[in-house]
Amino acid sequence: MAKKTKAPDRIRQLYHLADNWTRRQWERVNQQGFEFAHDEQLSLEEKATLEEQGMPTFTINRILPVVEMLNFYATANNPRWQAIGAEGSDIDVAAVFSDMADYIWDISNGASLYNNAINDCITKSIGYLLVTVDKDADNGMGEVVVQQPEPFDLYVDPKCRDLLFKDAAYIMIRKVLPKDHLIKLYPDFKNKILKSSSDQQQQKSYTTRALGDDDQKFFVYNDPTEQSGMGITADGEQDELAEFFEVYEKQKVRYVNFFFKIPPNEEELKQMQIQCQEMMKSQKEEMSVQLLEQQQKMEQAVQSGEMLPERFELEMKKAQEMMQQQLQSLERECMAQIQQASQKTGNEIIEEKQFKQALKEPQFKEMLLDAIPFYDTRIKITTVVGDQLLYEDVLPKTIVNYPIIPFHFKWTGTPHPLSAVAPLIGKQQEINKAHQIMVHNASLGSSLRWMYEEGSIDEEQWEKYSSSPGALLSVRPGSTPPTPVQPAALSSAFFGIVQEAKGDMEYLAGIYSSMMGDTGGQHDTYRGMLAMDEYGTRRIKQWMSTSIEPALMQVGKVILEYCQAVYSAQKRFRIIQPSALQEERQAEINIPMYNDMGEAIGKSMDITAHKFDIRIVQGSTLPINRWAYLEELKSLMQLGVVDDIAVLAETDLKNKENIAERKSLYAQLQGQMEQLQGAIKDKDGTIETLERQLVQAGIKSKVMQAEMEITKKKESVKSKMDGEYLDTEAKQKVLQSAMLQNAELTKARAGDMLQNLKKDLESSKKSE
């Protein structure tokens, strides 16, 4: 039997397997691109050659703006995740996940880490985010956090062919650290770290710059102390360096899905038997009474001669038999219920080791109904320092994905992608060379070189004053004067090389000058600018949708898996909104539920007991054209889809919070005033209606009174005319009274006319 390899030796073998020629060449190329992006574009040999030829050594960095713009487009906003519940009962809990992800992103300073990861993705071809647990946070309760490892510290299984490294057999983090630093990271393993072997290999460095270069502009991640093999402790003493490995591996663990009988308690059986007996007793009494009633009716029928005695006996016999059958059926039902209660089944999933251990118990064998073995994926972590194994651990079963998530720029189907900088290096060198030649040619034209016969001039005088305006330079008698050496004229086509190279670089990178505010390349009209912004960012959006957003979705899945493993107790999250117009949000998970006795019977918002599908909100990290967005909001406000507060929230006005508060107060007051005005209008309308009704009622009453008076007079006149005779004296009296009334009316009219005449005379006298 082969001897089992120790964990440190096995880990070192995996490291040498991953650190092959392809991996080293990939790191060298991308390290060069990283240095080019940070204006470290000349090697020592190139610099020395230029200086020997008297040419300038400056560079014009056209790569850094490309990197910054790509970084801006990918990190303009924080990513947002959504959880979709697998069942209807999961919807409420799924709504909390977005708040949890924002909380974890906030406490981890995720915006900066994500920015650095995207910068690594662009310049080094790949960036990483690592989801892990800070066990000491929250007073030992633990917090899920996000970290950003160095891409060149990671070594991936060379056979991996998945975009997110899901099919990798292992992912390894290797660092060379001082032992004192490792002890601070793992204080529980101090003795093992001190006993570990020191690093005998020098830290790799693929930079084109040599250490100690006076003109170095950018400092790579390799520290000179790592080259010497020694570090410095906190006390200022020299410390040994040690190789540190943290390896994540996927392994298949055998589980058993088994079904078993759940026997009822003795108390439950007794209670069910008692209930069955009571039911049988009450049913028997009821049926006995019914039988007596039936017997009494049939006896009366026999006495009255309606039924034969033989029929009576036969029917009584049938009734007794039916009663017995019903009692037996009821008894069988009760027994079936008891038997069904004793045949309840349960379902559990445990590891095969635990299942085999449980099979040793005879009681477990009797309860076991069926067992189905299967394999499940688990993530194993192995940590090694030098030749010492610190610990091996298996992550909780909720975590089935690697916590290390890669962000590729251009995936090649291997763990070695392409960067955005690599295709631009050649054009950058062309631009540098063209500018160096043009500046050198201009320098030669302004500071001429001279060809002279040896001994014909005073060399020191000519070197000092040959370029001075108005200088008098002496030539020895009989000697040939020095001849100026003119620089060769550059071809006119040479000057177009620089502009063409700049255009080629923009075309290769997909970042045009108009995106950076160059007014010369922008459209004249507003809509034309928006169209250019839309069309010019299609390549970036394609990169985001095919590389970055799948990785962000994987980050959300891993965060959820860690949350389900870590947050098992009640916890409240507080998320502060970036805009002051939005209030801070709070979310709470794993809320205990209690019964009337004060006993915990379960949890509300339990994230560990639900399954979710995680989705990244597409385009959530991309920038928004604010002017176009504001125009869209204005048009929506005019259509009544949104209100003015929504438009105000997207502006840059000062004190917009106070403005929004005032507008909300004005809106409330305006609403109250409109309500009062409506109430007043209703009351005014009611009053007018009532007035009209009163007028109409008065008119009706007066008409009715007039009709009644006319009717009375009519009846009185009719009664007088219908009389047998009329007294002549009565007729005279009637005529006299009528004449008197006419006379009084005439006098009254005459008096009125006299008074009017007097008034007219008085008014005429006054006017005279």
List the helices and strands and how they pair.
Layout: H1 7-18, H2 21-37, H3 44-52, H4 63-75, E1 81-85, H5 91-107, H6 110-124, E2 126-134, E3 143-147, E4 154-156, E5 170-178, H7 179-185, H8 190-195, H9 224-228, E6 230-232, E7 238-262, H10 266-303, H11 309-342, E8 344-351, H12 352-359, H13 362-367, E9 368-385, E10 388-394, E11 404-408, H14 425-446, E12 449-451, H15 459-465, E13 483-485, H16 492-509, H17 526-536, H18 538-566, E14 571-575, E15 585-589, E16 591-594, E17 600-604, E18 612-616, H19 626-639, H20 644-649, H21 656-721, H22 728-767
Antiparallel strand pairs: 1-18, 2-3, 2-11, 4-5, 5-7, 6-7, 7-8, 7-9, 9-10, 12-13, 14-15, 16-17
Can you give me a brief rundown of this structure?
Strand 16 and strand 17 form a beta hairpin. It contains 22 helices and 18 strands.
Write out key terms for the chains shown:
17% strand; single chain; flat; 768 residues; 3-stranded antiparallel beta sheet; alpha+beta; 7-stranded antiparallel beta sheet
